[in-house]
Every structure is written in structure tokens, then in C-alpha cells.
């Protein structure tokens, strides 16, 4: 389980600011600290690699321990974030993938698709991600190969 004193950085492109706001409210209500790194509701167009870079930098600089990135499908954000060593971004479309991303891959960024998931499922995925701890063991050995 991820400790609630760990800060979570969130960012979205123009497809996801409404869902991002709901996730931030949900996490704050659970006692998590959050950083909103953009984009605001009503933004015309935002390039997802720019937002992914902000969240990645915040994690690598130690200002946040984990991140959530939202775009239309979650795929673009995942690709942009995973270009950076030390980042393990997982695009999750249901609770099981979120749990396994944490337990087996020690994912530090969750990516989700605002045009793919409804709000209820997205919040459940977020809860599953943050309720799961990295198992280590054989999984740590595999991560060392990265």
C-alpha cells in the first residue's frame, strides 16, 4: 500500500482535465497530497509529451513519489513517460492491471484514458493502484534488467 504522505503528481492533455479533477478530489478526500501539473479545463490543445515530461521531472526530482497521466487512451502518455530511465508508467484499463503494475512492475506512474474509461472505473483503478505494494523478489530481479 502506498503511504498517504507520498505526493502524487497528476497531468492531462486536453482530453482529460475533467477526469483529472475528479481523481484529484478523490485522492485528496482520502488524505493523499496531490500536485496538478496541467492542463486546465477548457484548454484547446495540449501536447501530451509536454505534460508527461512535467510529471516525470517532478518524480525524478523527488517532489512527488508517484504520478497519474491522462490522455484520450492513456497510450500516448505511457509512451512519452516510459522514454525516461527510472520511470515505469503502466496504462491500465481495469483494476487487475493496476494491481499487477504495482505488485510486479513497481510502476510509479499510472496512465489512463479519459475517452476509454468512465469515472467510476477510473477511480476504482486509481484505488487499486495505490492500495497495492511492490512484491519485490523475482520481480525486483527482473526490474534490475531494465
Brief write-up:
This protein has a single domain, classed as Ribose 5-phosphate Isomerase B, Chain: A, CATH 3.40.1400.10.
Architecture overview:
This protein has 146 residues and is of the alpha/beta class. It has one domain: Sugar-phosphate isomerase, RpiB/LacA/LacB (Ribose 5-phosphate Isomerase B, Chain: A, 3-Layer(aba) Sandwich). The chain contains 6 helices and 5 strands; from the N terminus they run E-H-E-H-E-H-E-H-E-H-H. The chain has a 5-stranded parallel sheet, with helices on both faces. Helix 4 links the parallel strand 4 and strand 5. Helix 2 crosses helix 3 and helix 4 packs parallel to helix 5.
Largest sheet: 5 strands, parallel
CATH architecture annotation name: 3-Layer(aba) Sandwich
Q: Structural class of the helices, strands and pairings?
A: alpha/beta
Distance between the termini: 24 Å
Strand content: 15-25%
| Spatial sequence of strands, sheet with the most strands | 2-1-3-5-4
CATH topology: Ribose 5-phosphate Isomerase B, Chain: A
DSSP, total strands = 5
Helical percent range? 40-55%
Unreliable stretches covering 5 or more consecutive residues = none
Count of alpha/pi helices: 6
| SSE order, one letter for each helix or strand | EHEHEHEHEHH
**How many structurally independent domains?**
1
**What is the overall shape?**
globular
Mean pLDDT: 93
Kindly provide the name of the CATH class.
Alpha Beta
Question: Rg, please?
Answer: 14 Å
The name of the CATH superfamily reads Sugar-phosphate isomerase, RpiB/LacA/LacB
Amino acid at each position: 500500500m502506498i503511504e498517504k504522505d507520498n505526493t502524487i503528481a497528476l497531468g492531462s492533455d486536453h482530453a482529460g482535465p475533467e477526469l483529472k479533477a475528479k481523481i484529484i478530489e478523490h485522492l485528496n478526500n482520502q488524505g493523499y497530497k496531490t500536485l496538478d501539473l496541467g492542463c486546465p479545463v477548457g484548454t484547446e490543445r495540449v501536447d501530451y509529451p509536454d505534460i508527461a515530461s512535467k510529471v516525470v521531472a517532478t518524480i525524478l526530482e523527488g517532489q512527488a513519489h508517484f504520478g497519474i497521466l491522462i490522455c484520450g487512451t492513456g497510450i500516448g502518455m505511457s509512451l512519452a513517460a516510459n522514454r525516461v530511465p527510472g520511470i515505469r508508467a503502466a496504462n491500465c484499463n481495469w483494476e487487475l492491471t493496476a494491481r499487477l503494475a504495482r505488485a510486479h512492475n513497481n510502476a510509479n506512474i499510472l496512465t489512463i484514458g479519459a475517452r476509454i474509461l468512465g469515472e467510476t472505473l477510473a477511480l476504482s483503478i486509481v484505488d487499486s493502484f495505490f492500495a497495492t505494494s511492490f512484491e519485490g523478489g523475482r520481480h525486483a530481479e527482473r526490474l534490475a534488467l531494465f
